[in-house]
Amino acid sequence: MGDSGTILTSSDGTSWDNGTSGTTNHLFGVTNGNGTFMIVGDSGTIITSSDGTTWTSRTSGTSYGLLGVTYGNNTFVKVGFSGTILTSSDGTTWTSRTSGTTIHLQGVSYGNGTFVTVGLTGTVLTSSDGTTWTSRTSGTSGNLQGVTYGNELFVSVGDGGTILTSPDGTTWTSRTSGTSYGLGGKTYGNGTFVTVGESGSILTSSDGVTWTSRTSGTSDQIKEVTYGNSTFVTVGDNGTILTSTDGTSWTSRTSGTTNTLYGVTYSQ
User: Are 175 and 165 in contact (CB under 8 A)?
Assistant: First the structure.
């Protein structure tokens, strides 16, 4: 999903079909939880679907842009502009939470019983329930663009090739990425962390500590990456879609759009 309400679906990551979102707002974040696909975007946009085909608009109660969404502990958590955090148990009724910051929050993840959200100027917040949030020291003043959890490790990425890792969301360690390009997309699957970013950057790691640059075959900015059905899928500028079975070798796919694609997720 991406610019102007664009939604694409695929059963295999190779062939893609255009869907109808019911909105022309830009869509930035997507997740799947409790049998529900959820997408968030500009002006507090929330749309949900049980099948990825038919979408329903939901009332968020905010006009701020929403950038990230995750599901964990039977709770949906959304984050966005000006420190916005919203939670819901059903994806329909939303409650605003106090983040303690007005910094834009760029991404959110759940793992090890903890929600972690990251944002501009090195902002990191954690919560055990999505309701009460605590500020953490990231060790960087650079912008953090996303966070994921896998292999008992949180990995956050950001501007200038920043990569941070943490076992608990509280204590963070800077890692060497080997690139100065901004990184934004991130996922974990098949024993591999993958992060993507500017100028077609793709990096992989088996442990979150040592990272290897991969050849993407594109110079377009890659916005996000996910893993499902034994396949990594990335999306980005100009309708870019790439797939890989191992995170190392990537193949370009035809998306059928030139709109920027910001997010991608998987569910059986």
Answer: yes
Q: Helix or strand or coil: residue 55?
A: coil
> Helix (H, G, I), strand (E, B), or coil: what is residue 213?
strand
Cα 224 from Cα 233, distance rounded (Å): 8
Question: Global pTM?
Answer: 0.97
Are 22 and 47 in contact by the 8 Å Cβ rule? The answer is: yes
- Confirm if 126 and 133 have CB atoms less than 8 A apart: yes
Rounded to whole angstroms, the Cα distance separating 218 from 88 reads: 38
Q: Give dist(CA 224, CA 107) in Å, integer.
A: 11
Residue 222's closest CA among 186, 193, 247, 179?
186
Name all domains of the chain by residue range, CATH numbers in brackets: 3-253 (2.120.10.80)
pLDDT digits (tens, 9 = 90+) for 149-158: 999 999 999 9
Which tokens in the block code for residue 264?
A: 């991608």
The two tokens of residue 93 are: 């009724």
Q: How far is CA 85 from the centre of its chain?
A: 15
Enumerate residues 6+ apart whose C-beta is below 8 A from 212: 178, 203, 204, 205
Beta carbons within 10 angstroms of residue 150's beta carbon: 19
